[in-house]
Design goal:
It is built from 3 helices and 23 strands. With 394 residues, the protein is an alpha+beta fold. The strands form 6 sheets. A 6-stranded mixed β-sheet has the order 1-9-8-3-4-5, with no helix packed on it. Strands 10-11-14-13 form a 4-stranded antiparallel β-sheet, with no helix packed on it. Bound molecules: 2-acetamido-2-deoxy-beta-D-glucopyranose. Its main location: membrane.
Length: 394
C-alpha cells in the first residue's frame, strides 16, 4: 500500500462518493501507485523563520489529470488556499502574503513557502491534490513553532540585613517550549539559594522566573553571579552576568580639612549619598561660603563666617549628619597681634635693660630683677591659654 491518506477521511465528501473513492483508492490507485510522499512530516522551526511545506504527487498515471491543488490547516476543515492551473493561487479567507506557491502545477508540485513564521502558524497543514477522475490524495505536515525566551535581569535592590531576601531575579519570558533558568553562584558559595517558578500563558508560551536568595550582607556586595537560560528555540544558551548589589544608608559622615579653608565631607553609602552643607546656627547661608559638591569652601576668611556647619549625607535608605565648628581669625587682626607681640617684647627688653642699668648703678648685688619672673602672655586664640594667663596674673 502507498502512503496515501485515504479520501475516506474527507468528511466533506458525500457518503456515497466517499464509498466510491474508498473503493478506488484501495483497488485502482493502489495498484497504479499515485502517491504523496512525506505524510506526517514534522517541521520544527523557530519563530521568524521560513518553512517549506512540501507537496508533490509522484507516479501519476493517465487518464488522471490534476484539476486542483488546495491547502487547509487543521482543525479547520476548509481550504485557505486553492491553486488552479494557469492562475494565481487563490486565498479563500484573506490574502496572507507570507504564503508563496513555489511548486509547479504541471509537475504535480503544490509546495508552499511560509515566511516570517509566527506562533499562530503552528498546526497541521494538509495538501489535497484533486485528481480527475480518481479523486483526492492528500498529505499532512505538522508545523511546530519554537519561540525563544525574552531574557532579563531585575535587581531586587536588597538592603543590608540578616534575613534571607531575594537579591536578583532572572526572567525568561514567553518561551515555547519552557526555557530553563539556572543561577551560577560559585562566588557566593553556600550563601545562595535559588527559586524557580513557571507560568503558562494562553498562547501556549511559558515564562520561567528564577530568583537568587541570600542574606544581604556587605560581604557579598559586588560578587559576580550568572543566570544561564537554555531553550530549544535558542541556538546556544544565553548567559546574563550580574554583580550583586547590597544597598545601605550612609554609614558614617567624616569631615576633613582638605586645604586651607576647605572642608570635605565623605561617607560610605549605596547608592552614593547626596551631600548637603548647611549652617546650623543661621538659616540664611553666607554668600562668601561656597559649596562645591561635598566640599565646603571659604574663599575669604572673615570672622563673620564663624559658626557650626552641618554636613548631611542622604540616600534612598537613610541619612546621617556630622558637624564642624569653623573659627576664622581675620588677617587684619593677625597682623595687629604680631605688632602687639613685638611691642611687648621690646617693652620687656627695655624694662630689663633699665633694671640692669639701675642695679649696676646702685651696686646692689644678689637681687633678682622682678620683671623676668612674670610670664609674658603669648599670642593665643584659644580660651584655655587665656585662662592660663589670667590664673598666673592672679
Ligand atoms: C517541488 O517544488 C519545490 C519548490 O520549487 C522544490 O523544492 C521541490 O524539489 C519540488 N519537488 C519535487 C519532488 O520535485
Amino acid at each position: 500500500m502507498y502512503p496515501v491518506n485515504s479520501p475516506c477521511n474527507l468528511n466533506t465528501q458525500p457518503w456515497i462518493r466517499r464509498a466510491a473513492l474508498c473503493f478506488l483508492v484501495s483497488t485502482f490507485l493502489g495498484t497504479v501507485g499515485q502517491a504523496l510522499p512525506g505524510i506526517g512530516e514534522n517541521i520544527i522551526l523557530v519563530q521568524g523563520g521560513t518553512a517549506i511545506l512540501p507537496c508533490k504527487l509522484v507516479g501519476r498515471r493517465p487518464p488522471d489529470i490534476v484539476s486542483q491543488i488546495s491547502w487547509r490547516k487543521e482543525p479547520r476543515n476548509v481550504n485557505f488556499l486553492t491553486i488552479l492551473p494557469k492562475t494565481e493561487p487563490i486565498f479563500i479567507d484573506r490574502h496572507d502574503e507570507r504564503f508563496e506557491f513555489i511548486g509547479n502545477f504541471s509537475a504535480d508540485n503544490g509546495s508552499l513557502k511560509l515566511s516570517n513564521i509566527m506562533l499562530k502558524d503552528e498546526g497541521t497543514y494538509t495538501c489535497i491534490i484533486t485528481l480527475f477522475p480518481s479523486g483526492n490524495v492528500k498529505t499532512s505536515i505538522l508545523l511546530n513553532v519554537l519561540v525563544p525566551p525574552v531574557t532579563s535581569l531585575k535587581d531586587d535592590l536588597p538592603t543590608v540585613g540578616d534575613e534571607e531576601v531575594s537579591l536578583v531575579t532572572c526572567v525568561a519570558a514567553g518561551a515555547k517550549p519552557p526555557a530553563e533558568v539556572q543561577w551560577l553562584t560559585d562566588t557566593l558559595g553556600e550563601k545562595a539559594r535559588q527559586s524557580i517558578s513557571v507560568s503558562e500563558h494562553a498562547d501556549g508560551t511559558t515564562t520561567t522566573v528564577s530568583s537568587l536568595f541570600g542574606v544581604p550582607t556587605r560581604e557579598i556586595d559586588q560578587r559576580s553571579v550568572e543566570c544561564v537560560v537554555t531553550s530549544a528555540a535558542l541556538s546556544k544558551e544565553e548567559r546574563l552576568p550580574f554583580t550583586v548589589q547590597i544597598y545601605f544608608s550612609p554609614v558614617e559622615v567624616i569631615i576633613s580639612e582638605t586645604s586651607e579653608g576647605a572642608f570635605e565631607c565623605v561617607t560610605e553609602a549605596k547608592p552614593n549619598a547626596n551631600i548637603t552643607w548647611s549652617r546650623s546656627d543661621q538659616s540664611r547661608p553666607q554668600s562668601t561660603v561656597k559649596v562645591d559638591g561635598a566640599t565646603l569652601q571659604f574663599p575669604s576668611m572673615t570672622s563673620d563666617l564663624n559658626g557650626l556647619y552641618q554636613c548631611e549625607a542622604t540616600n534612598l535608605y537613610g541619612r546621617k549628619r556630622n558637624y564642624v565648628y569653623v573659627h576664622v581669625t581675620s588677617e587684619s587682626c593677625q597682623t595687629c597681634c604680631v605688632l602687639f607681640g613685638l611691642l611687648l617684647v621690646l617693652m620687656v627688653v627695655a624694662v630689663a635693660l633699665w633694671y640692669l642699668y639701675k642695679t649696676r648703678k646702685c651696686f646692689r648685688t644678689g637681687e633678682e630683677p622682678r620683671g623676668e619672673k612674670s610670664k609674658v602672655p603669648t599670642v593665643s586664640t584659644t580660651h584655655e591659654d587665656y585662662q592660663q594667663v589670667a590664673e598666673e596674673q592672679l
